[in-house]
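Renewal narrative, Specific Aim 1. Our central claim is that a sequence can be written position by position from structural information alone. The example that follows is taken directly from our test logs and has not been curated for this report. It begins with the structure tokens describing the chain, in the order in which they were read.
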């Protein structure tokens, strides 16, 4: 594509300065340097490329080059000063534009994730950042051992990987509260799993949670909150998986929704374990390992570094204290639900 022709007013006064400086040997004055910087800022704001602008200055230099050989050094010094001041103004304008763009992006992200803006207006602003909020979107959140800001090495590494794999597919990568966020169209099934893979590696084994695709302008907020809740739930439950999908964890919010009923279940079912020597914690850990291993006593014993005989003894002790029969599916379901509830309530460390 042909480059735009540089308007003459961006070179206003340049030939006159060059001619005068080459004749007198003086350096450019402060007002002259200030005028070059101002023109550089104007050219940047107008969207002209610095390469083309420097080329225009060199062409003007050739046209106004002094004929006296003795004035060449002064002329070259003037060219250097003028072009340097012009480039300084250009770069200053670009830095300001970048800061303004970053501020606008941050404001948009905050409004998008907290729903603090009119949804119609939010959808209009989203198109500027490559999102079509009329479609369904899903959000993945990555949390590492430290916090991350936009521009840090980790977000840049993940963004480069996403761009290399998917190009421009209406994907927005950003940071919020020290976490990495990826917002992608709901139908792009490969994007968020790949983001999770890259973020897990880039954050030195950090954890990633993926919300469900949700429709409409408010869908991003819902999916984001689901991902955050999944991270919190994994922390409370001690889940080990590096990638969590909110769709796979829906049972836990259901359990936690009625806290009083959950408290009654935990205390009513597992409360008798507090009468055991050493308290309820060792026996609760036994139940957790037992259920996490698919109710295989030998595997649960291995996880707890116990002998199978010791594991069997603990399970019998739990049965005697609670009155539950682990071979009965209904009793087993009640115990497992109560065990999950205890982890959600942080019982017995915290009194419900």
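The sequence written for that structure reads:
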């Amino acid at each position: 594509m042909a480059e735009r022709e540089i308007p003459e007013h961006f070179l206003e006064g340049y030939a006159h300065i060059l001619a005068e400086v080459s004749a007198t040997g003086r350096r450019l004055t402060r007002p002259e340097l200030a005028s070059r910087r101002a023109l550089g800022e104007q050219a940047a704001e107008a969207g002209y490329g610095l390469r083309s602008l420097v080329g225009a200055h060199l062409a003007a230099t050739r046209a106004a080059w002094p004929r006296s050989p003795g004035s060449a050094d002064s002329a070259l010094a003037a060219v250097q000063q003028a072009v340097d001041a012009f480039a300084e103004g250009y770069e200053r304008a670009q830095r300001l534009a970048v800061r303004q763009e970053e501020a606008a992006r941050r404001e948009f992200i905050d409004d998008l994730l907290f729903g603090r803006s009119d949804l119609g207006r939010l959808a209009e602003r989203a198109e500027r950042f490559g999102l079509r909020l009329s479609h369904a979107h899903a959000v993945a959140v990555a949390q590492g051992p430290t916090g991350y800001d936009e521009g840090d090495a980790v977000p840049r590494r993940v963004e480069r990987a996403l761009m290399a794999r998917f190009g421009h597919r209406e994907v927005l990568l950003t940071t919020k509260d020290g976490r990495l966020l990826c917002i992608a169209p709901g139908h792009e099934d490969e994007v968020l799993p790949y983001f999770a893979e890259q973020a897990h590696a880039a954050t030195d084994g950090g954890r990633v949670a993926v919300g469900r695709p949700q429709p409409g302008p408010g869908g991003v907020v819902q999916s984001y909150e689901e991902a955050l809740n999944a991270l919190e739930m994994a922390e409370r439950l001690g889940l080990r998986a590096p990638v969590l999908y909110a769709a796979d964890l829906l049972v836990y919010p259901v359990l936690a929704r009625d806290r009083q009923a959950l408290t009654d279940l935990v205390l009513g079912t597992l409360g008798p374990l507090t009468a055991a020597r050493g308290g309820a914690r060792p026996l609760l850990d036994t139940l957790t390992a037992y259920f996490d291993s698919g109710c295989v006593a030998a595997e649960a014993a291995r996880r707890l570094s116990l002998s199978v005989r010791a594991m069997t003894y603990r399970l019998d002790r739990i049965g005697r204290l609670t009155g539950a029969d682990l071979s009965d599916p209904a009793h087993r379901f009640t115990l497992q639900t109560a065990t999950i509830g205890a982890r959600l309530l942080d019982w017995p460390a915290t009194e419900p």
